[in-house]
Amino acid sequence: SWTMANVVDEQVAAIREQIGDRRAICGLSGGVDSAVAAALVQRAIGDRLTCVYVDHGLMRQGETEQIERDFVAVTGADLRVVDASDQFLSALAGVSDPEQKRKIIGREFIRVFEQAALDVIADAKEHGETVDFLVQGTLYPDVVESGGGTGTANIKSHHNVGGLPEDLTFTLVEPLRTLFKDEVREVGRRLGLPDTLVQRQPFPGPGLGIRIVGEVTRERLDVLRQADAIAREELSAAHLDTEIWQCPVVLLADVRSVGVQGDGRTYGHPIVLRPVSSEDAMTADWTRLPYDVLAKISTRITNEVAEVNRVVLDVTSKPPGTIEWE
Ligand code: XMP
């Protein structure tokens, strides 16, 4: 629409005005909001924006490549990918408690991002430049919820071994502050971002780490990633991916059940499908997916993912269930 075309032009102008000839940094999460915010800023200031993507190893199949390859191809953004999966997995070793996992993932994320930001600042400094701005994909509902404030962000340095703790202070750039989610998707489309990114369903920051009930390991992540990819593939083949709010796929890694395959007994793990319908994720109902789609997903997962011998459907509304299992 005309309005969205105006939004792009107006935001690009506003960003140029705010940042001038200085530099900015943006953390990409793999989600729609940070990608669209970064694409707008890239259009406004080009290579004076550096994007940082922390690969925590907890993303779904193809998502990291989508940012590394497709996002960069479309926007031409200067992207630094930090592969921190080893660091996240060691920090998560032996941990099963959901809140603990969330805390650890959040803490490691800040550490890695902060180090990346320090590196970007050090590189800029070599050219006599400073990095003063942090781009964030804050949407209108977030602005309302947080009381409308804006201004600066402070990243406190925790692991600055041998030196004084250094506070990194940035002025925030929030080009999506006046927009709702569907408007952000429209802006993203206008900026040429692929549908797979623009139509992406909500996905939690801690990623697959909170979709494995039990300890998170590389092997378990691989199992869950395969099952999740099959579910997503079949949901989009049935054109249901844009109908439902989201469909977490959960691996019950601490549960085993007996099965039979070929002429052998199996003792594998269950996968839970959690398709939900919702307006805002505050409440949700379980989606009555067509039986034939469920059957296809179940058959494929149990055939194609060796460690899984059972697929179950979560038929709980929210409340009392949450959308995620952890
Ligand atoms: P629950 O499980 O609380 O989830 O019903 C509500 C919505 O929030 C998403 N979710 C998260 N998103 N970081 C996020 O960015 C998180 O830690 C997180 N936990 C849950 C969830 O996918 C659902 O859309």
Provide the list of bound ligands, each named once. Answer: xanthosine-5'-monophosphate
Indicate the structural class. Answer: alpha/beta
CATH class of the largest domain equals Alpha Beta
CATH superfamily of the largest domain: HUPs
Tell me the CATH topology of the largest domain.
Rossmann fold
* Strand ordering within the main sheet: 3-2-1-4-6-5
Number of spatially distinct domains: 2
Mean pLDDT: 94
Give me the strand/helix succession.
Answer: HEHEHEHHEHEEHHEHEEEEEHE
- Tell me the total number of β-strands: 13
The rough form would be described as globular
Q: Uncertain regions: pLDDT < 50 for 5+ in a row?
A: 156-165
User: CA-to-CA gap between the ends?
Assistant: 39 Å
From the structure provided, what is the oligomeric state, counting identical versus distinct chains? single chain
The second-level CATH architecture of the largest domain is 3-Layer(aba) Sandwich
- The total of helices stands at 10
Biggest pleated-sheet summary: 6 strands, mixed
Q: Could you tell me the strand content as a percent range?
A: 15-25%
Helix fraction by DSSP (H/I, runs of at least 4): 40-55%
Question: What is the CA-based Rg, rounded?
Answer: 21 Å
Function: Catalyzes the synthesis of GMP from XMP.
Keywords: ATP-binding, Glutamine amidotransferase, GMP biosynthesis, Ligase, Nucleotide-binding, Purine biosynthesis
GO molecular function, one term: GMP synthase activity
EC number: 6.3.5.2
